[in-house]
């Protein structure tokens, strides 16, 4: 069964999607079979994997509402099979688009509403080594579906003044889900992203994070790197677009650290 983890932080624009797509590609680059699930109606992870969100016939929305099976809705990242031009590595994608915004309300009246992703994943879990879930910037029913399906959470964060404060809500939510819905769930680690070592404040916050969370802070640090920001406009993760860029190298290093860390989780 695949190791399933969420990339989550309710704060917007902190690098969740960049982490998700590059981690999916980075894990692919070191030989892992990966499924990336876009759980955000913005569909950025879908677009960043080269799949036009407007062209999706079936998406994670259909899977959550059980109007399609997960197997029918999964597609390869575009450069894997559909793009003509072959790039490597590749991974599979369960995409999202604006339809997913409606799922929030539609799920409310349904049975086992927070367990829908978990149930769907039980059908494909053996086909992958890793499932990466890109969560939306909220602690919503969608994020809850991600947290109930996962064994762990990766929290990308920028080393800014309010970073620690914002973590409290997320940590409390994870504790509640752990206590009530999913006893497997744990924080795998905090990932420092968009890091600029020349900024003294960032170094200070990074030190605070280490003091507070110790081993839960990943060793890998993702630098601020323009190639990572440019890659989505080509429909590619940075790791595929420019594998030698500093940011891409950092994500490959991070992928290896994830494999090492997760090997100790059942
Ligand atoms: P949302 O909360 O809206 O889903 P997010 O947390 O998924 O946002 P991203 O979309 O990954 O955040 O990143 C926000 C912006 O920062 C994007 O424009 C992205 O290209 C840019 N960005 C992310 N990581 C880096 C990096 N390491 N270096 C440079 N730019 C980055
Ligand atoms: Mg995002």
List the helices and strands and how they pair.
Layout: E1 3-7, H1 16-29, E2 34-38, H2 44-47, H3 60-64, H4 70-73, E3 74-76, E4 92-94, H5 99-108, H6 116-121, E5 130-134, H7 141-149, E6 152-157, H8 163-180, E7 186-195, H9 200-213, E8 217-223, H10 226-230, H11 238-241, H12 246-262
Parallel strand pairs: 1-5, 1-6, 2-4, 2-5, 6-7, 7-8
Antiparallel strand pairs: 3-4
Helix pairs in contact: 1-12
Key features of this structure:
266 residues, eight-stranded mixed sheet, binds adenosine-5'-triphosphate, alpha/beta, Rossmann fold, 12 helices, single chain, 8 strands
Write structural notes for this entry.
The chain has 266 residues and is α/β, with parallel strands linked by helices. The chain has a single domain, classed as 3-Layer(aba) Sandwich (Rossmann fold), CATH 3.40.50. The chain has an 8-stranded mixed β-sheet with strand order 3-4-2-5-1-6-7-8, with helices on both faces. Strand 7, helix 9 and strand 8 form a beta-alpha-beta unit. Helix 1 crosses helix 12. The longest helix is centred in the middle third of the chain and has 18 residues. It is globular and about 50 Å long. Bound molecules: adenosine-5'-triphosphate and magnesium ion. Magnesium ion binds next to helix 1.
